[in-house]
Amino acid sequence: MAHDLIAPSILSANFAKLGEEVDNVLAAGADIVHFDVMDNHYVPNLTIGPLVCEALRKHGVTAPIDVHLMVKPVDRIVGDFAAAGASYITFHPEASEHVDRTLQLIRGEGCKSGLVLNPATPLSHLDYVLDKLDMILLMSVNPGFGGQSFIPSALTKLQQVRRLIDASGLDIRLEIDGGVKADNIAEIKTAGADTFVSGSGIFGKGKEGDAHRYDSIIRQMREALASVPR
């Protein structure tokens, strides 16, 4: 299985100091910047667009940026995020009329592609497109809001997708998003995840204004992940 990656969701960061927040969390040992894009259409909230992604790149962020599109329609915005510096672009199959075409579009723009499955979305959406996926993201909350609690049935779903990926022999990351914290990340890894999105579980910790306030929480997560045998 691939090495574990921690992906802080900037949805929970202090947006007045976003560049500094991202610098600090990466300096504390995070691997990927997770970008929650909501359109108040596919999901009931409105967040950030390509300009923020571009601003972080211009600020000097070189880490991979993992753009999770909770938007409908999808295709129109893919090129904008690719141009803004996205590394991964993932989307929900319910938000695309032609999932295969959208995946090809993302890869055609030079980004890694992925599908996002909500808690009640069936795994059958993966059946004919595994060869076009670099990432499968399982939602362990319903999308649209930060700070929600982990839905336990996501563990069973992780196990099923892990078996699917392993049987395929393909190089596909298995990401989890929603309610991921230091005290449940080991259980989530045991179920098969290798990429861990955490918003309030990281940004909600520590004292505001302390550049090192993320060190301890990310260290706790690393220690919990290391406790799980491969």
Describe, in short, the structure shown.
The chain is of the alpha/beta class and 230 residues long. Helix content is 34%, strand content 17%.
Write the layout of secondary structure elements.
Elements: E1 5-8, H1 18-27, E2 33-38, H2 50-59, E3 65-70, H3 75-84, E4 88-91, H4 99-108, E5 112-117, E6 135-139, H5 153-168, E7 173-177, H6 185-191, E8 195-198, H7 200-203, H8 215-226
Parallel strand pairs: 1-8, 2-3, 3-4, 4-5, 5-6, 6-7, 7-8
Describe the protein in words.
It is a single chain. With 230 residues, this protein is of the alpha/beta class. It has a single domain, classed as Alpha-Beta Barrel (TIM Barrel), CATH 3.20.20. The protein is 34% helix and 17% strand. Strands 1-8-7-6-5-4-3-2 form an 8-stranded parallel beta sheet. Strand 6, helix 5 and strand 7 form a beta-alpha-beta unit. The radius of gyration is 16 Å and the shape is globular. The mean pLDDT is 94.
The CATH superfamily label reads Aldolase class I
Q: Strand share of the residues?
A: 15-25%
Beta-strand segment tally: 8
The end-to-end span amounts to 8 Å
Under CATH at level 1, the class stands as Alpha Beta
**Main sheet, how many strands, which sense, barrel?**
8 strands, parallel
